[in-house]
Design brief:
51 residues, alpha+beta
Length: 51
């Protein structure tokens, strides 16, 4: 298979994937703040604020 045909095939496959699993920005969660604290007993606490 020539490189040109392979490139066209790959471009076609990318176009066929579509948007079947599309999720809008209002349906997603974003980490807007992340905090890492060291506890007295040498453990770590990770806090995440989602929006």
């Amino acid at each position: 298979m020539s490189r040109r045909r392979l490139a066209l095939l790959l471009l076609g496959l990318v176009g066929l994937t579509g948007c079947w699993d599309f999720r809008g920005l209002d349906q997603r969660a974003f980490a807007i703040m992340i905090g890492i604290d060291r506890l007295p007993d040498d453990r770590w606490r990770v806090s995440v604020q989602m929006h």
